Write the structure tokens for this entry.
Amino acid sequence: MLASPPLKTPPALEPRPTGAAPGEAAILARTPDDKAMLRAAVELTRDLGEAKPSVFWPDMLASALTGYAALAGAILVGNVWLAILCGVLSALAFYRALLFIHELSHIHRNALPGFRFVWNVLVGIPMLTPSFMYEGVHPLHHARTRYGTAEDPEYLPLALMKPWSLPVFLLTALLLPVALLVRSAVLVPLGAVVPPLRRLVWARASALAINPAFRRRPPEGDFARMVFWQEAGASAWAWFLLAWSATHGWRPLLIGIGVIALGAVLNQARTLVAHLWENEGETMTVTGQYLDSVNVPPPGGVTVLWAPVGLRYHALHHLLPSVPYHALGEAHRRLTAELGLGSTYTRSSYAGLFPLLGRLVRSTMAMR
């Protein structure tokens, strides 16, 4: 359902051959920087760095409100199939609304006055995923000397792991809503009176990360104050949900958990194809990081469902992390026109979700 339509794409946009020996992508990733590409990326996009309120606000608000309206339908309608349809729509809308947390980790704190607060009230705290869980974490993934290493919170050499690791990685997302509920309702309040637990929860369970070795450093200054209020809001909301469900019935909460779990699985699938995942901890050049990342440019309209808010241009985002999501399409068009389909730039473009998943699966099978 999430694959791109079977349209003919230019040769440069086809997936790379998958018969090559495992580790080929890692070798490519260690190639010297393509200075012409890096220079063009900067020079051609100087005017695209502004985060436009006229795009951010309507997009986020429409996504969140659609999610809530569809969730209400999933809870209230009597027809099972219509309820399921509403649940799927709610999951997709909330998924898009939640992914604005990625933009919040990049835009300047003063770029969109009030946006961070409203997003946390409408999306982050109700989903028990306040913005602090990504702010201060995701930038480490973009650090020149951290990407793809053991210090990268968002990287694992998945293509070099056992075949069973992929379904396990995907299905653990089903547990995310319950884990977040336990964290906010139980662990955070207990941590307020048990300092060792508080330090453990912060280090191990306060970041949207996939690297199990990642340990988060304690927050400081203004960020620590922001964390306090966001944690307090999430814990209060978690306790309200549990108290209301205990007195009025658990069905709405269970449906909500199912909706969020569906969105979490979709995000986990997107994560599986965000990179090639073949680096084994070596420091990489900027071009290497780009080649280890993935673009899924048009055609393929369904891509906006599983890689919304600009994440279909994930490799381009690693070249230009400060360019907001709504400008990445234009940046891609300019760079493709300037550098051509046979350039280094187009080598990170692929045709869709399923070809990328197939490539990853074949890599793990070959490693076996």
Observations:
- The mean pLDDT is 90.
- DSSP finds 17 helices and no strands in the chain.
- Residues 40-367 form one domain.
- Residues 221-248 form the longest helix (28 residues).
